[in-house]
Amino acid sequence: MVWKTLLQHCISQPAAPRRQDPAAVAALRQRLAAAGHEKLGRSLAIRHVAAGSCNGCELELRATQNLIYDLTQYGLSFTPSPRHADVLLITGVAGDNMIAAARQAREAMADPVLVLAMGDCAVDGGVFKGSPAIAGGAEAIMPVDLFVPGCPPAPAQIIEGLLALLEVNDILPARPVRGPR
Amino acid sequence: MKLLSAQDWQAYPGKFIALWTDAQFAYALYQPAELVATPLVEGAYPALRHKGAAWFQRLAYDSHGHNAIGAADTRPAIEHFRSADGTAPWPEFASPGGEGVHQVAVGPIHAAIIEPGHFRFSLRGEEVLKLEARLGYSHKGTLALMRGKSPRLAARFAARISGDATVAHSIAFAHAAEAALGMTPPPRAVYLRAIMAELERLANHGSDVGMIAGDAGFSFLDARFALHREALCEAARVAFGHRLMMDMVIPGGVAGDTSSGGATAILAALLALESELPSLTRVFEDYASLQDRVVGTGIVSPALAAAYAAGGFTGRAAGQNHDARVSPGYAPYEHFGLEVPVEQDGDVVARIRIRLAEMTESIRLIRDMLANLPDTVIAIAPPSGSGSGLGVAESFRGPVWHWLRIEAGTISDVFVADASTLQWPLVEFAAATGILADFPLINKSINASYSGVDL
To answer: Is A4 domain-assigned?
Structure first.
């Protein structure tokens, strides 16, 4: 099997590099400039919260970590703790039963924080829009910086959105350096 | 449907699948596809003693206020009693007594990229004495949204009951609508549905086996199986236009034919998986450190699996030979002689072995179906009729049932029973046969859906 794998490496071609979505970058830049958002570190840690999804978005979000997409190569990784996270990534409709938990996760994160709503449900409730059991999208329960629509968005689209976060983060003003205490 | 008196309703024998209520009746479904009902009296009905009935009775109370008289378990199912600011009080989680017993709370937000749910473990040291799952966090009001819509419109909700089983749920929903309206989908659509369903099974079985190994610190299998899942999803995109094949199955047929090049893409992904599957299986079986984590872990005994009439690989790993593709059975599987693997041990490794065996079988089925694809139209329009119907499909995790009542082309009532409903109690039992550190393996090995039961 080792030889077969080596052979595959010899004949396989590198994939085309992925680029951020320009429209998403422009919208995000405008929003963050208006908010006076400060620069985060160079690599971003993501805390994912499923707030009433059908689990389709989770499947594609997990796929961004596979050998083809390899999210980590861009300096993006998932973290279990909101305390360590720079990005709050929300999937699902923001169901009423998840509002409190999603807000708690946001409050547990150290500012500045980027909030990303992934999938049609998190954008505006998707097909479930108008259900009395849901808030109807992440923006209904907290301010959102970037939307990645799709039902579910494919891994490449998710990465385009996340790369937009990196792109904009690069040009944000750095946090003022504090003197010694 | 058989209408029963209260006594006969309670005494009805058989393997219980699901229970639900509408404005007039309480319905119960038994294997292989027997539907019985009893009239509601002042919004109440006699509770059933079947183990699996508890969640359904709790759900019927939370969604319609219908009381199951004499029910032992009256905890809320999806109702969290939120106050205006969105916060909700924690329910009482009873702990078994004894010195040193303490509780560990996990969720609703979990560490991994998965759905929300709360687990309350009662522990003595590392040993899990009891697990109580509090669900309902994914509740979206799906069933209410389906009422008042045409079957074609409501199919979009059926496809989103559990995203990992979107094809199976769409097929079960289409079966129910077709039974209610007396339609027969064209043969080509029936074959394309089954091809999609088997692709979905392959993708999920593979990635779950990989993730269980990954949870045991064995990331090689996780990486390889995730790669095969990716190849299958991409083949599905080429063939059907969507990586998860969502919204492809509709009442009356399928929404689109395979693209040119679709069959080639699917066959290439199958070949890649088939050629690596034996060596991946060998790696799984050969590494003592991995086997140590999965053998004898998270046991669901055959008696327990029988008491809950558990379907899918969870049941088949514990001596139950039920598969909805065979019994009650649906087209086109009768032409392909399905082999249903069965194991007896009911532990994590037994569930994995069943899934590996089913993968081989799914590869064969897809090839046979692609080679024999009938040349007909792919869909017929549903007539604007009335009627009620049951539909079933075997998702990767077990049978999913849809029940519909259609009046003049519009859905007036609907119920959906995902296989997970009978499997969540088994997750609770299986967790209490091991230590806390084994729970991720046990949970993943059963992989009950949250969205599928929260509805």
So the answer is: no
